[in-house]
Amino acid sequence: MIRPTVVLGNLGRIILIIGLAMLSCLAWSIPYHEAVTIPILKAAAITLGCGLLLYLSSSRAQDINFKEGFILVSLSWLVASLFGSLPYIFSGYLPSFFDAFFETVSGFTTTGASVVSDVEAWPKGLVFWRSLTQWLGGMGIIALFIAVINTLGSRAKQLFKAEVPGPVSDSISPRIRENARILWTTYVVLSILCALAYKSFGMEAFDAICHAFTTLSTGGFSTKNASIAFYSNPLLQWAVILFMFLGGVNFALHFLCFRKRNPLIYLRNAEFRLYGMIILVVSLLVFFNLQDKWVTAGLEGTLRAAIFQIVSLVTTTGYATADFNLWPPLASTLILLMMFAGGCSGSTGGSIKPGRYLIIANRTIIELKKMVHPKAVFPLRFGGMMVRDDLLINVLQFFFLYIALTGLGTVIMTSLGLDFLSGFSAAATSIGNCGPGLGLVGPMSNFGFIPDAGKFTLSVLMLVGRLEIYPLLVLFLPSFWSD
Question: Model confidence over 47-64: pLDDT tens digits?
Answer without folding.
Answer: 999 999 998 887 655 677
